[in-house]
Write a structure and sequence with these properties.
- The protein is mainly alpha-helical.
- It folds into two domains: 62 residues; 81 residues.
- The protein is built from six helices and four strands.
- The strands form two sheets. The protein has a two-stranded antiparallel ribbon. Strands 3-4 form a two-stranded antiparallel ribbon.
- The N and C termini lie far apart (84 Å).
Length: 184
Amino acid sequence: MKGLLSVLQFGTFALSAAIVIFFGIYGYFVEAAVRIKFSIPQVGSVLVAMVIITVLDVILFRKAEQTSRMNWGQINPISQYVLIFIAISFTWLMGLMGYVRSGLRQHWHVYGVMRDNSVDAFTPTLGYATKIVSLTVLIFFGLIGVVFWLTSLSSKPDWQPKAKKTGGGSPEPVSASASRGELP
């Protein structure tokens, strides 16, 4: 039973993906008005797939056994990094695809209706835009890494001055001038 439901899930996903890919590719060979209407079966197939797969998940996991106790508010640290990485990956993709959408309207304010005839009309190449968006995302990713590094420092002990040992007594703190070799 579980195997059949898993196959149904995969089939639903594959059919939805095939519909989206078919209309996405076929949209390049038809006029804009038809291409816009192709979004209805694309979005519809994805929504139907989400509902069907969710229902099948509920059926599949309805009698699942609990393997360990869940502690709300506690998460494996690597999971937090993966979540941040996924968010950055989606941001990267959105930046690139946003530019692709704008770049495809090259020299048009409203595609097919109002052309941009100004002498300064310019759209950077996709390669250049990819470099800029990627550089921006990588800088942001690096800054997020710095934030994680800074938060990891809070678990380390505070700085303590080194103590020098005196003859037989308790250690005495070393002053900053003495550590540099200066005389008191």
